[in-house]
Write a structure and sequence with these properties.
Blueprint (H helix, E strand, L loop, with lengths): L5 H13 L5 E5 L6 H13 L3 H4 L5 E4 L16 H12 L8 E5 L7 H12 L5 E7 L7 H4 L3 E4 L5 H11 L3 H10 L4 H9 L1 H17 L4 H11 L10 H24 L8 H17 L6 H8 L3
Parallel strand pairs: 1-4, 1-5, 2-3, 3-4
């Protein structure tokens, strides 16, 4: 499901219809806002195929972080070997005689070597090739890479657009409105909540937990951290689960900050304190990708 950001859709409709596609585009915006969905939809149009057949299309290449075979965790960056793979594929002629399309996920995680290798591809682009770089933080890309890409910034999507999109997908109208309300402008999150009732239930569990945390003392919050990592509890089994929790808390933190900004009276936290807490939650989520003690990380988050 792709909804919202219609100006970006209209741009590419014109570019594809007129045959004036560029070689490299950067899609920048929050995770689950639609960057990958649109990139794949555009790939189907460029390659004249369907979404169901796209991943097996010989001229479509999707690059994402690899999993470390020893630890089972995602590697921290896009490796030089992956960048060379892109270069190798684009240097060869397409299998079907038309375009080749590459979608690079989390492009901001290119390391120095892989970024420089990708830069060479952008400096000498192959004919009939299109590269989509997807990034939550495009500022982390090399300036020389950014300068060779046309960047599109994805905005948060309205609740109505998300709800209408869910209804089109088959969701009941009232449930669609409920889910759109808690998705914070991100269609991908809305789809996940609709298709996975466990994730939706976890959202409400974390909302209840959050509303208690805000009014607790630090010592009481440490008890919450203890609960999260209790070996007898299966609520958190891995890093991905903890990231989901931090994501929910970040959304609720934003709601708290907006309410405080609009309020004429003092709240449990000032707008500045809310902002600092949100920054702390974001930092914690980013640090989870590193080899860091998760319990200590959560205790730091709860220190406000």
């Amino acid at each position: 499901m792709f909804v919202g950001n219609t100006q970006i859709v209209e741009f590419f409709k014109g570019a594809i219809d007129s045959g004036h596609l560029g070689h490299a585009y950067c899609f920048a915006g929050l995770n689950q806002i639609g960057k990958r969905t649109l990139a794949k939809q555009l790939a189907t149009q460029i390659l004249s195929t369907t979404l169901e057949k796209l991943d097996s299309h010989p001229d479509f290449h999707y690059i994402e972080r690899l999993t470390d075979e020893k630890t089972g965790k995602l590697k921290k960056d896009i490796s030089i070997s992956q960048a060379r793979e892109i270069k190798s594929r684009l240097q060869n002629r397409s299998w079907l005689g038309g375009y080749q399309v590459v979608v690079l996920e989390e492009a901001e995680l290119l390391n120095e070597e892989s970024a420089n290798s990708l830069l060479k591809i952008l400096e000498e682009p192959s004919a009939q090739s299109v590269l989509f770089l997807l990034a939550e933080n495009e500022a982390a890309l090399l300036p020389t890479i950014r300068s060779r890409c046309q960047t599109f910034y994805f905005s948060l999507v309205s609740k109505k657009e998300i709800a209408d999109g869910l209804v089109i997908e088959g969701c009941e109208e009232e449930r669609a409105k409920e889910i759109a309300e808690i998705s914070w402008g991100r269609p991908g999150k809305a789809i996940n909540y609709w298709r996975d009732s466990e994730k939706l239930n976890n959202y409400y569990l974390e909302k209840d937990r959050w509303e208690k945390i805000i009014y607790q003392s630090f010592s009481e919050r440490l008890t919450v951290a203890e609960e999260l990592f209790n070996e007898k509890s299966d609520f958190i089994k891995n890093k991905e689960k903890l990231q989901e929790i931090l994501d929910v808390w970040t959304i609720l933190g934003r709601e708290g900050m907006l309410k405080q900004i609009k309020s004429d009276t003092a709240g449990i936290l000032s707008a500045t304190q809310w902002s600092q807490l949100i920054d702390s939650l974001r930092e914690a989520k980013n640090l989870l990708d590193q080899n860091i003690n998760q319990r200590l990380l959560m205790e730091k988050v709860l220190l406000f």
